[in-house]
Each structure stands twice: as structure tokens, then as C-alpha cells.
Amino acid sequence: MSGDLVSQQQGGGVVSYSADELQLIRDVCARDCTENEFKLLIQLAKTYKLDPFSRQIWAVKYGSNPAQIFCGRDGYLAIAHRSGQFDGMESGTRTDGGELIGWCRVYRRDMSHPFEVEVYASEYSTGRNLWKDKPRTMIQKVAEAQCLRRAFSISGLYSPEEIDPGEPHMATPAQVCEVPKASPTCCTVCGCEVAEDIREKTRPYTDQVLCIEHFQAWWAEQKAQKGGEQ
Fold it and tell me: Alpha-carbon distance 119 to 4, whole Å?
């Protein structure tokens, strides 16, 4: 990427990323992505006015496959609220003949009927990790993501709950590994090993050793605190 600033309109103000911040986004939100994959991530972030540092949008590279660009539920809701037409959302789960089903209903002020989605856990569950421990939460998130996308014409983005990363070796360390013993190279929050290049890139911002997910959470908290002081 060039050293030019990338600007986004967010919350009524313009957010600009310097060359260093673009590199940080690449290192913590688009690790191992190709140049074109990273450009696509930035373009989608600009299109939908999403903040990578708040974990509203990020990319994950699974082996040699094309990167998946994800949007969290907070990101979808940010798009919905910004439209000015969002009029609430209902969601939950139910069972039918032993089948776990997630459902969601999204209302728009400019439409007389809500958008409705139902999704079956059997079509999305990997049977691993959170799908094993919290299947209702996971399938509800899938329903919410699909319904919000449909209601607000969002394309090119998926929620991580909708994607099966495939074989365990292609998933992130936090998904497949036991929490390692504490060490100077492990995340101080979750205990997962943090790669040296990530530690180097985040060190100018915090003395803590943080994995990608918890660095993003820390960054969002710092931004919120600075915003509150203004």
C-alpha cells in the first residue's frame, strides 16, 4: 500500500489512517493476506464505513485459499444504524424435530414488512469449539448476520460463524490449541502464543503482549476513552 492516508466517514467525522496505521491494520487484521486481498479489505472498510481497529471488519487467510473478509455483528449493526432506516431487530433459536434453528427479524422504517431469516444449525455447525459449547449463540449470530445483510443490501462480507475454516491446522491458534503457560511471548489476556512480528508491531502502542483479537479490543477501548475526554 502507498503511504497516502485512507479516510473514512465514521460517526459524523473523518477517520484517516497514516502509512504506519495501514501497516498495523495489515499486520493485525489481515495477516498473511496478499496485496490485492488487503486492498479489498480496505476498500470494503471504506465502502461500508467500518473500523478494523474496533473489529468491525477483518480478514483471515486460511492456508493458500483466498482470504475471507469478515464483519462482526457490531459491524452489521453499525451499517444498519447509519442508514437511518433501522427500526429494531428480534432474534433467537427454536427446535423443530430435534433440529436447532436460528431465526431473526429485522425492521426498517421505510418498509411495511420485516425481513425474516431462519437458518439450520446442521448446515453451519462444525461441531468444534464454540459450535460445540454454545450452538444456540452461534446459529443465532448466523441468522442475525444474514438478515441484516438482506435488509441493508450488504455484499462481500460474511460473519465468522458462517465459515468453516476447514482442517484444524488452518484455523487460528486460539481455536485449536490448549492455552499455553504464561510467558513473555503469550497474550496477557488469553494466554495464546503471539507471533514475534505481531509483538513488534504492537509494542509501540502498548507494553502488554496481546494477540490480534485482544489488541483490537484494547485499541477500541483506547479510542473510546479518548473520545470521551474530548
Answer: 42
| Residue with the three cell numbers 486460511 | 62
Query: Any idea which residue has 484455523 for its cell?
Result: 171
Q: Is the pLDDT of residue 174 over 60?
A: no
Q: Cα-atom radius of gyration of the chain, to the nearest Å?
A: 19
pTM of the full structure: 0.67
Give the Å distances, CA to CA, from 48 to 1, 68, 92, 221.
20, 16, 26, 21
CA 7 vs CA 15, 43, 138, 207: distances in Å: 5, 11, 33, 28
For the chain, helix (H) and strand (E) counts, in that order, are: 8, 7
Domains in the chain: boundaries: 1-56, 76-162, 173-230
| Secondary structure (H, E, C), 157-179 | CECHHHCCCCCHHHCCHHHHCCC
Q: What is the mean pLDDT of residues 11-22?
A: 67
- 120 sits in which H/E element: strand 115-120
Give pLDDT, residue 192: 61
* Alpha carbons 82 and 87: distance in angstroms, whole number: 12
